[in-house]
Amino acid sequence: MNEQATGVRPTYVVGVDFGTLSGRALVVRVSDGAELGSAVHEYAHAVVTERLPVPGTAALPPDWALQVPEDYREVLRHAVPAAVAVAGIDPGDVIGIATDFTACTVLPTTADGVPLCELPQWADRPHAWVKLWRHHAAQAQADRINALASERGEPWLQRYGGLISSEWEFAKALQVLEEDPEVYAAMDRWVEAADWIVWQLCGDYVRNACTAGYKGIRQDGAYPSRDYLAALNPGFASFVDDKLDHPIGELGSAAGRLTAEAAAWTGLPEGIAVAVGNVDAHVTAPAAQATAPGQMVAIMGTSTCHVMSSDVLREVPGMCGVVDGGIVDGLYGYEAGQSGVGDIFGWFTRTGFPAGYAAEAEARGLSAHELLTEKASTQAVGEHGLVALDWHSGNRSVLVDHELSGLVVGQTLATRPEEVYRALLEATAFGTRVILETFRDSGVPVTELVIAGGLAKNPLLMQIYADVTRLPLSVIRSAQGPALGSAIHAAVAAGAFPDVAAAAAAMGGVERAAFVTREGDAAAYDLLFEEYVRLHDHFGRGGNDVMKRLKSLRRKAIAGKDEVRQAPGPTAPTAPTAQEVRAGGEAA
Fold first, then answer.
1. Which CATH class is domain 12-282?
2. Which 8-state DSSP code applies to residue 563?
3. Is 384 exposed, middle or buried (0-12, 13-18, 19+ CB in 10 A)?
4. Residue 395 — φ and ψ, nearest 5°?
5. pLDDT tens readout for residues 486-499
């Protein structure tokens, strides 16, 4: 329906997608999902991996990934009003706002929502800061959570494929308790960033059903028992009761109304609906009109999250979780994922792009990715003689082990950069196929793969996925799937639609079968996939712990260097410069 043609004043909603490196705001017309304006605000501190943005603090250990909460508020102050200005609409016609976030991104706060890192007494303590989803330093805690749950036969464990990730709420919280008990004692709330940003907007803390179910081990209305938590660590017994448990808001409902302060930040009307928070991947499914059983959405960016709905409840090994109503009401929502995808490609362009290629790219006005993609596109399947494992940031599904690392087999003195690049593209497709086959073998078949996220713009990558998975690849209409998905939820929260499915039908969009399987290439990829699986099982399941041993040796070496650097005398380190602080968080 065209509201202007009928004389009805159009209404709009705003969706805000908080990603790994930036936040994006999108203005959407409620009647038909038309995207009228968007704006991006980069996080000033990006991802903090080297040292805190506080003078005089020590280097962070390996596998840490932190963020700065003020960077999130800055998105509200800058991206939202900029998107409204680009859209050219009257802000008074906006009826709702919704947000989504990477997960599990989590932070300790006071009872009224102040992040501990913003309090002077805790600013120099790493555990007081936001732990980004890709903070993988809690693997030891995750291993203990899994081992104890398996030993005790905890019924919730199989709802998560038999393994809890180090990325999730419980492992990260247990790490805080055991490495900085003073910070743990000082925090009143252990809050998903998805819920914290909603708290900032409406002044009410409402825990969203999505992250509570997938990242917070909440099944059938309950969390792991106090007795189980005490067995992990006596000091952890009251974690759920004291720091985690909170009223749950259902997806698409209103968490509250926009406060006067948040209205001043965003330029939106005070009192409009603020939707319950959500996860970037799960919120994208309605935007892609992929809410029926069998439709799996792969949100491909720095990492990939795979989500799908089903009318059956099954135990899928290595899945990130299955939650009743986790995506849309009335169906079971499944999640799986790959910890590194776009991050891997970005790493290679930074470290494996020789000067001659850089000069050619500059002369032709191409990015490193564009030049490597062009060169890789000329190769026949298998021509490079390589196979890679896509574990540069660990394995989320189906092995759930972030101590694993990347591998490329088959390199020779004749191997060219574009060949390694293509092998890495293919490795991520093979990783997706492992996930698809695991779902299929568990009784949850996938019939369509729908792609969302920035990597959908690479046609070579998309065709590789269609050939490797032997599934038709549909592509979401929007280049900003999570933000559109949030806007859809904002419309429901504002009362414009009765439920998310109805809003998705009116506001979402997808190009069906944009890429189809080419049988010749698919047959060639079947052979390469067999080699991938051999490597996958040898290093991931076969008892060969070389990757883990190498990581342990790396940690010891870094710790030894740090001890030397911090020793008194002329070799003692100086405080970082302002430039070093700003650069310390840069990531792919």
1. alpha beta
2. H
3. buried
4. -120, 120
5. 999 999 999 999 99
